[in-house]
Amino acid sequence: METLLPDSYRGIGTEELKGRIRAMRDRLGKRLVVLTHHYQRQEIVDLGDFRGDSYGLSLEASRQENAEFIVFCGVHFMAESAAILARQGQMVFHPDFTAGCPMADMADVNDVERAYEELGKVINTTNLIPLTYMNSDARLKAFCGKRGGAVVTSSNSQAGFKWAFERAEKIFFFPDEHLGRNTADKRGIPQNELVLWNPAEEMGGNEPEDYRKARVILWKGFCHVHTHFTPEHVRKVREEHPGVRVIVHPECVREVVKLADADGSTEFIVNYVKNASPGSVIAIGTEINLVERLARAHPDKKVFPLSRSLCPNMFKISLNNLCHTLENLPNVNRVIVEEPTRSEALAALKRMLEIKTISAD
Question: How is domain 229-305 classified at the CATH fold level?
Answer without folding.
Answer: Rossmann fold (3.40.50)
